Amino acid sequence: MKLDHTGIAVRRIDEAIDFYTEFLGGKLVERYTSEKPGVETHIAVIHLDNQVIELLEPTSKTSPIDRFIRQKGKGVHHLAYEVDDLDKAIEEYEARGMTFLKDTYRTNPFGRRLIYMNPAHTHGQIIELCDYKG
User: Fold this and answer.
1) Cα separation of 118 and 59, whole Å?
2) Which of 18-22, 33-37, 77-81, 118-122 is the least confident region?
3) What is the CATH number of domain 2-131?
4) What is the pLDDT of residues 51-103, one digit of tens each?
5) 17 confidence band (pLDDT: 50, 70, 90)
6) Would you call 74 helix, strand, or coil by DSSP?
7) Pseudo-torsion of CA 112, 52, 6, 59, nearest 10°?
8) Pair 43, 55: CB distance under 8 Å
9) Helix, strand, or coil here: 10?
10) Angle at CA of residue 34, ends 7 and 59, nearest 5°
């Protein structure tokens, strides 16, 4: 398993993109909006050396990113780890007592399948597992 990306909650995505590209030298490689219920977020993917940063700006008051910013402020929202097979990883972790936020299971527009672990088991940190089978 390896770190796939770091998701960062921001209030103004354009300003955050400018910071990560102009000041830190990153490259904007994807930008899209997901209006799916339970997502409702503008997303920008920045490649920075050997790191991937996913900037997340809420598009509505019902967005989980909006709720996160209201509760904890802007900053690191989640860490995403790539697994070889997402369904197999879920099955293996559940057999060991891990629970997942089942409503977060989805495939993004670029074929990445993902799900969030229940933060009750991860010491409060939001952890995403993902693969690229799609």
Assistant:
1) 23
2) 33-37
3) 3.10.180.10
4) 999 999 999 999 999 999 999 999 999 999 999 999 999 999 999 999 999 99
5) very high
6) coil
7) -70
8) yes
9) coil
10) 80
Report in angstroms the alpha-carbon separations of 72 from 9, 21, 58, 69: 10, 25, 14, 5
Q: What residues contact 73, with CB distance under 8 A and at least 6 apart?
A: none
Q: Which amino acid, residue 100? A: F
Sign of CA dihedral 61, 65, 69, 74: negative
Residue 134, pLDDT score: 58
Sheet strands (E) in the chain: 2-9, 27-34, 41-48, 51-58, 75-82, 100-107, 113-117, 126-131
Closest among 128, 81, 20 to 31, alpha carbons compared: 20
> How many helices, marked H, and strands, marked E, lie in the chain?
3, 8
Q: Is 18 helix (H, G, I), strand (E, B) or coil?
A: helix
Rounded to an integer, what distance in angstroms lies between the CA atom of residue 22 and that of residue 78? 24
Residue 133 has a pLDDT of 81
